[in-house]
Amino acid sequence: MSIDIDTARRVAHLARIAVDENDLPALAGELSQILTFMEQLNEVDVDGVEPMTSVTPMRLKRREDVVTDGNMQDKILANAPDAREGFFAVPKVVE
Amino acid sequence: MSELSKLTIAEARDAMRAGDVTSVEITEACVSAIEGADALGAFVHKTPEIALEQAKAADARIKSGDAPAMCGIPLGIKDLFCTKGVASQAASNILEGFKPEYESTITQNLWDAGAVMLGKLNMDEFAMGSSNETSAYGNAVNPWKRAGDDAELTPGGSSGGSASAVAGDLCLAATGTDTGGSIRQPAAFTGITGLKPTYGRCSRWGVVAFASSLDQAGPMTKTVRDAAIMLQSMAGHDAKDSTSADLPLPDFEAALTGDIRGKKIGIPKEYRMDGMPEEIEKLWQEGTEMLRSAGAEIVDISLPHTKYALPAYYVIAPAEASSNLARYDGVRYGHRAKLAEGDGIEQMYQKTRAEGFGHEVKRRVMIGTYVLSAGFYDAYYNRARRVRALIKKDFDDVFAAGVDSILTPATPSAAFGLGEMADADPVQMYLNDVFTVTVNLAGLPGIAVPTGVNAHGLPLGLQLIGRPWQEDELLNAAYALESAAGFVSKPAKWW
């Protein structure tokens, strides 16, 4: 499987990582190289094998659907690059 | 004074309890060792004030006669662990300035036991790497050098700072995390002991996530006994991590009898790779003979899907990483890119992530995005999860046949030079994990123990793999191997 420049551009967009047009060919090459390495998996007969979902056969615990904490707006906002009036501030989202 | 930082956990515990030395004295020795070791690039955020404060409290607790084994022991903490009020940035620029408002469960467990935090340790960015060369802080450096050669070597990765700090006697022990070999490979490269517990043994809460179904934290120590002591404090059920196991903890240190008579040790033929260096082959042979001499029964075993572990890992780990790292968007914490006039939220995300993530992280996030994208999900991601099930079944079959643990090399080579792999393609670097990654995919406990040195005087390690939840048995086998190998070499101080 080889990744072309259009696919590299699309993947970068899906990942929300800005990639310069000039860097796309190199990126496509690197991604292709790794995907070629993964092609080995096609040699394995996986018919009838269930995809592994959990490392150990355990049932995930369920917790009570209750409020356990809260009232810590200041702590939640403490690390924000831009927090104003008790909110996270971001550039305009809706025109 | 500086001799005190060379103590093992067990030695320090016994000496403190006997009143021969105080935690403050040991801590001060570590602080001064760290001050003189910037060339190792191990400690990236130093917290001597916190350390001395904790050491004083530990001394008071020891005096009162009611102190756990880790009380007063100065540790280094991998930068991946969130530590309240102390920079925790996973060696990434995207988390620059991030000071968590909370403490990871594992570090909290350690502080509750009275342990002392010396600071945060270098690592590969988001734990993605095998040489500590992807760190935003710059390289961590191996205290070991090749005989007669001044070239700086990698301490391995991703827990490279942890390995360097323990091997260089800057601290008594350190925390590490292991997603594909990130505790065991650096331990092997630096001549120390590194234990990856069974998946679910240690809580992942508050540990920055890389690949959630593979990540597991563990101790990096100077001896197997220290690994047992430290695991006891780190491990245990945590309601805040839904994959944390609600199982009783055995007494790990009490399991260290060194008696492995009649235990079945499997030697997997698939780990004898083409082109494996002779020094690794020889080390493995010697280790096998040591365990045989200790009374273990050596059996040849087969783990037929071993070859597919690495490609399966490099689908699953990036897939999970691309999801986990979606949270770094410049809104809630860390770095936000400077925006141009008219940039909207989309540009903010894209520029922030382009600036904040390093090259290897971007590459893996994009690979993960690709294998999870519509049309490829089944061909890559689901196929890899099926292969993973087969890899796990290989181990299940072997254990069902009565094998107690499995002996393999820990790494395909000794530590390599920093920058030596710069021109290699990414897959070459990934091969470092070839012996360790199967263990993460199957969720098993694994431990790297130093057992010899190569022709250049560099340490080499072997790996023992255990049954799930039987770290006690595994540690005992490792203890027998450690006792037989008698590895005592230390790097000559150059830093």
UniProtKB/TrEMBL annotation, chain A:
It holds the Pfam family GatC. It catalyses: L-aspartyl-tRNA(Asn) + L-glutamine + ATP + H2O = L-asparaginyl-tRNA(Asn) + L-glutamate + ADP + phosphate + 2 H(+); L-glutamyl-tRNA(Gln) + L-glutamine + ATP + H2O = L-glutaminyl-tRNA(Gln) + L-glutamate + ADP + phosphate + H(+). It is an enzyme of class 6 (ligase). Its EC number is 6.3.5.-. It comes from the Bacteria. Keywords: ATP-binding, Ligase, Nucleotide-binding, Protein biosynthesis, Transferase. GO terms for molecular function: asparaginyl-tRNA synthase (glutamine-hydrolyzing) activity; ATP binding; glutaminyl-tRNA synthase (glutamine-hydrolyzing) activity; transferase activity. Belongs to the GatC family. It comes from Actibacterium lipolyticum. Heterotrimer of A, B and C subunits. The keyword Protein biosynthesis applies. The keyword Amino-acid biosynthesis does not apply. This is Aspartyl/glutamyl-tRNA(Asn/Gln) amidotransferase subunit C. PANTHER family: GLUTAMYL-TRNA(GLN) AMIDOTRANSFERASE SUBUNIT C, MITOCHONDRIAL (PTHR15004). GO terms for biological process: glutaminyl-tRNAGln biosynthesis via transamidation; regulation of translational fidelity; translation. Allows the formation of correctly charged Asn-tRNA(Asn) or Gln-tRNA(Gln) through the transamidation of misacylated Asp-tRNA(Asn) or Glu-tRNA(Gln) in organisms which lack either or both of asparaginyl-tRNA or glutaminyl-tRNA synthetases. The reaction takes place in the presence of glutamine and ATP through an activated phospho-Asp-tRNA(Asn) or phospho-Glu-tRNA(Gln).
TrEMBL record, chain B:
The active site is at residues 78, 158, 182. It is an enzyme of class 6 (ligase). Keywords: ATP-binding, Ligase, Nucleotide-binding, Protein biosynthesis, Transferase. SUPFAM superfamilies: Amidase signature (AS) enzymes (SSF75304). It catalyses: L-glutamyl-tRNA(Gln) + L-glutamine + ATP + H2O = L-glutaminyl-tRNA(Gln) + L-glutamate + ADP + phosphate + H(+). GO terms for molecular function: ATP binding; glutaminyl-tRNA synthase (glutamine-hydrolyzing) activity; transferase activity. GO terms for biological process: translation. One of its GO terms (cellular component) is glutamyl-tRNA(Gln) amidotransferase complex. Its EC number is 6.3.5.7. The keyword DNA damage does not apply. Residues 25-475 form the Amidase domain. Coiled coil: none annotated. Heterotrimer of A, B and C subunits. Belongs to the amidase family. GatA subfamily. Allows the formation of correctly charged Gln-tRNA(Gln) through the transamidation of misacylated Glu-tRNA(Gln) in organisms which lack glutaminyl-tRNA synthetase. The reaction takes place in the presence of glutamine and ATP through an activated gamma-phospho-Glu-tRNA(Gln). This is Glutamyl-tRNA(Gln) amidotransferase subunit A. It comes from Actibacterium lipolyticum. The gene is gatA_1.
